[in-house]
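> forwarded from #structure-qc
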């Protein structure tokens, strides 16, 4: 019965594609900006928890209640990771828990293109072809070894302490995607992880009911390679062609926007002590300030928002790595008065810089 209900749900999703609007669906984009999808899932997961109030989970992220109610809002990946960092002490296996609820529909148009692919193997090749739309912090690879197909995750792209958390969420979600595509449980042959077995290792069975190996040479899971040629229950060549065209268009647009956004960040980052004004920044980009403001708004951010993000990241680095007085940190970030920096840091992180350093 559960399988039939799942299949019925996916059929309804495919029918809804005729009215598909990319902005209405959460997509985890691997970029400086992302949606509130993971944060919303996390808040829902802890709803009713006595120690996990919304304020405690959002502490230091700079995410407001107003943003949470706006489906078009965008946050930085640093903000997303801060919320996850706040929640981990309350649930060590949180990555596994979140991953088990991130269905193929969480990946927007790319997920729907995969659902309508002809075979299981074609669906995976399509998913891995667009890492920017898949939105992972890892390099994903599908390989066939003997009679097993291995889906591996390597080269973690962030410099933080959340690699294991993000890996667990990533692989648990990919396992669930496989089941969504097939319309039934995905039989795993093995799962390997580079990290040591955690204290909550028994929770791995919820996603990886197979032989587990920790401190392994790579991260990933394996399933029978024969499944790659299996036809998917929702295969539809017409829908697939339409979705693939949209994915290609969206990926090109997204890549161009991200290159442009990266250029803006570089121009601001090169001199945070004396950052260019909006007008000066627009001149360096050979456009008007109005055009620059419009482009930033389309990306879900603003000149001040980008500048704050860069200053916040740099402030945390200086406070953590340098034994500088707060006044010198403020000067390095372009604040004329130390009080102004303290007020800004309080707004960004929810605490004064001295407390953050302690």
């Amino acid at each position: 019965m559960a399988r039939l209900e799942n299949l019925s749900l996916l059929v309804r999703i495919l029918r809804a594609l005729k009215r598909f609007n990319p902005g209405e669906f959460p997509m985890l984009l691997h970029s400086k900006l992302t949606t509130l999808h993971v944060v919303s899932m996390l808040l829902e997961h802890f709803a009713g928890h006595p120690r996990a109030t919304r304020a405690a989970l959002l502490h230091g992220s700079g995410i407001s209640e107003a943003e949470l109610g706006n489906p078009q809002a965008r946050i930085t990946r640093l903000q997303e990771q801060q919320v996850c960092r706040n929640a981990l002490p309350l649930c060590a296996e949180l990555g596994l828990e979140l991953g088990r609820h991130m269905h193929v529909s969480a990946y927007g148009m790319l997920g729907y293109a995969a659902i309508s692919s002809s075979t299981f193997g074609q669906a995976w090749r399509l998913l891995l072809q667009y890492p920017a739309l898949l939105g992972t912090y890892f390099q994903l690879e599908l390989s066939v070894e003997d009679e097993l197909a291995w889906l591996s995750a390597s080269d973690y792209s962030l410099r933080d302490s959340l690699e294991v958390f993000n890996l667990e969420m990533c692989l648990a979600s990919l396992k669930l995607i496989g089941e969504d595509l097939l319309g039934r449980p995905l039989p795993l042959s093995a799962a390997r992880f580079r990290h040591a077995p955690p204290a909550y290792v028994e929770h791995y069975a919820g996603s990886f009911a197979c032989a587990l190996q920790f401190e392994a040479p790579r991260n990933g899971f394996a399933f029978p390679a024969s499944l790659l040629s299996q036809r998917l229950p929702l295969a539809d060549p017409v829908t697939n062609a339409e979705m693939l065209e949209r994915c290609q268009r969206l990926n090109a647009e997204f890549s161009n926007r991200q290159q442009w956004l990266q250029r803006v960040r570089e121009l601001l980052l090169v001199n945070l002590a004396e950052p260019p004004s909006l007008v000066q920044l627009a001149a360096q980009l050979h456009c008007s300030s109005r055009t620059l403001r419009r482009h930033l708004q389309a990306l879900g951010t603003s000149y001040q928002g980008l500048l704050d993000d860069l200053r916040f990241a740099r402030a945390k680095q200086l406070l953590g790595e340098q034994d500088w007085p707060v006044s010198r940190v403020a000067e390095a970030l372009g604040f004329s008065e130390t009080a102004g920096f303290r007020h800004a840091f309080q707004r960004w992180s929810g605490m004064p810089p001295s407390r953050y350093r302690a």
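QC bot note: The mean pLDDT is 85. The chain has 17 helices and seven strands.
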